TrEMBL record:
Pfam families: Metalloenzyme. InterPro entries: Alkaline_phosphatase_core_sf, Metalloenzyme. Residues 214-343 form the Metalloenzyme domain. Transmembrane segments: none annotated. It comes from Galbibacter marinus. It comes from the Bacteria. This is Periplasmic protein. GO terms for molecular function: catalytic activity; metal ion binding.
């Protein structure tokens, strides 16, 4: 009996010894938002172009004389609270670079890279609904006994159950047009379920981000998970459709979701003072504003260029990074493991954690 007990301790000892059960992490992905808008606000050429709908109201709402003023109008929470209390990486004008390492430069490969800490161009080379053969950081954390059933994912795109491999990982994924399920639904979840079926989405595979956002917060209130992934998707789909006004409005709405989420975290004793928020995007977009901004992929210049934001617990308040640096999104998954003090799991990853 003693030998069996000793064997068990040897197998799970590193997890029991290292894990930080007080740590909470929110990983946010904002699909296809260009670093150009994040750091400079509305693009002058796109605002002035008459081919894009709603340009007069768009100009009045988002145009200001300087990049600093324009970005403040577009994403006020990012450029007020986070800029003072966190870190914002990826302003290439200032020499701060954040890049993808995969060569596909579209969504599934981008998310795989973020979640697993490495690119896999050989096997992850389409957006098809096929279960990810790679193990994500969400699955790793969910398999630690003390975090079992304390990991959740919410996404507007209906491919996330496959990217995270919900079937194998055991991580619940509410994505696409899925509703909240269970016998303990809150009144708000019941309302969201009803409303989602009544409000048509412009797209067949992506729901509106408001549903993703509120489903996530309701789950956080009920179950207090330690690791939550929230994937907003509207910005990418509006961009593909060439609707620059909707793209900017969606970015501004998502910024308000960030603020709402942070205010909830600061009001909840389980999360207050114990939560780190990491944000990034799955790919960039073209840099030629009148054409390629709508697209991304291996043949589009600038699609590799992304950004990274961090704030909350254990994040140094460095603000906007104005010095030369090179970061990669492959560093995000190892960073999550490091924050949970699961160093032994990092040997699976090719890159080092990001310095926060």
């Amino acid at each position: 009996m003693k030998r069996v007990f000793l064997f068990i301790l040897i197998c799970i000892g590193p997890f029991l010894k290292a894990q930080n059960t007080d740590q909470k992490i929110i990983l946010i992905t904002l699909d296809g938002l260009r670093w150009q808008e994040l750091f400079s606000g509305a693009d002058e050429k796109l605002v002035a172009n008459k081919d894009y709908r709603g340009n007069e109201s768009l100009k009045e709402k988002f145009w200001r004389n300087t990049p600093e003023e324009r970005r403040q109008v577009l994403m006020p929470f990012v450029w007020s609270y986070i800029a003072k209390n966190g870190q914002i990486h990826g302003n290439r004008v200032l020499g701060s670079k954040v890049d993808l390492t995969n060569n596909m430069l579209f969504s599934y490969p981008g998310y795989n890279e973020i979640f697993t800490g490495r690119a896999d161009d050989e096997r992850i080379n389409s957006n098809s609904k096929t279960n990810n053969v790679n193990t994500t950081v969400l699955e790793i954390i969910n398999n630690v006994p003390q975090f079992k059933d304390k990991v959740f994912s919410f996404g507007s795109w209906d491919v996330f159950p496959f990217i995270i491999n919900e079937q194998r990982s055991g991580v619940p994924v509410n994505a696409g047009f899925e509703t909240a399920k269970g016998e303990d639904l809150t009144d708000k979840e019941k309302f969201l379920n009803e409303l989602q079926s009544q409000i048509p989405s412009p797209w067949s595979s992506v729901r509106l981000d408001a549903f993703t956002h509120h489903y996530a917060i309701e789950t956080m209130k009920k179950y207090h998970p330690n690791l939550v992934h929230i994937a907003y998707g509207e910005t990418d789909d509006f961009a593909h459709g060439g609707d620059y006004a909707a793209y900017l409005n969606s970015a501004q709405n998502t910024d308000a979701f960030f603020k709402d989420l942070w205010e909830f975290i600061e009001s909840d004793p389980f999360y207050k003072g114990q939560t780190t928020i990491l944000m990034t995007t799955d790919h960039g977009r073209g840099t030629e504003p009148l054409k390629e901004w709508k697209s991304h992929g291996s043949d589009i210049e600038g699609a590799r260029e992304v950004w990274f934001i961090a704030f909350g617990k254990d994040v140094k308040p460095l603000g906007e990074i104005k010095s030369k640096e090179q970061l990669y999104t492959t560093g995000i998954a190892p960073t999550i493991l490091k924050l949970f003090d699961l160093e032994d799991s990092q040997k699976e990853y090719m890159t080092e954690p990001l310095e926060l």
